[in-house]
Amino acid sequence: MNPVRPSRLFLQLGILLALLPVVASAHPGHDGGHDLHWDFAGGFTHPLFGLDHLLAMIAVGVWAAQLGGRARWLLPATFVGVMTLSAVLGTQGVALAAVEPMIAGSLLVFGLMIVLAKRLPLSVGLGFTALFAAFHGFAHGAELPAGSNGFSYGLGFVAATLLLLGLGLALGQLTTRRPVWLSRSAGAGVAAVGAVMLVA
Ligand SMILES: [Zn+2]
């Protein structure tokens, strides 16, 4: 394992943590509050402005790129598929407990996966991805107000998710050829944000 220079790591963590309150407060919904725009644009912008979704989706892409091979499409496809299915179940009144902590936990786990890189088998990775994707999707299906256009919102949400997964894949492809500390410290940063959200 390549040692990560502590000074560099702490600098990056510091920047991330300093940004956290700003970005996290920009995240509408999840708490029973509602996004104001339940349409395509509302669905598309939500993951982009919600730090928890944003980081988790990029992290899955980075991680998929690290694993390489089949994982590059299997992990993102699993994330989008399970997320969409659970969002639909959420609109049908299926209840899941601890959605918020599980979403924060997804950042912690996905971040650590990037730190660990290729040391976990793909089946374990797919299991974690499916589990956490369910909570990312469910959070939004469940809070959809009756009578609003969930289809357009969902379509926007899925489009943004695909974009972020693709961005993560591209970043992962770039960083796998760069020094290992780069992706490792980014993964550690994502995990740290998840840990902070868990205790917050
Ligand atoms: Zn959200």
Give the tags:
200 residues, mainly alpha, 8 helices, globular, binds zinc ion
Number of domains: 1
> Gyration radius, to the nearest Å?
16 Å
Structure annotation, total helices: 8
Determine the mean pLDDT.
82
User: Could you tell me which ligands this complex binds, including any ions or cofactors?
Assistant: zinc ion
Question: Could you explain the architecture of this structure?
Answer:
It is a single chain. Helices cover 76% and strands 0% of the residues. The protein has one domain. The two termini are 32 Å apart. By secondary structure, the chain is mainly alpha-helical. Zinc ion (ZN) binds next to helix 6. Residues 29-30, 46, 50, 53, 139-140 line the site of zinc ion.
Write the layout of secondary structure elements.
Elements: H1 6-24, H2 40-49, H3 51-67, H4 71-91, H5 99-116, H6 122-142, H7 150-176, H8 180-199
Helix pairs in contact: 1-8, 2-3, 2-7, 3-4, 3-5, 3-7, 3-8, 4-6, 4-7, 5-6, 5-8
The structure holds zinc ion (ZN).
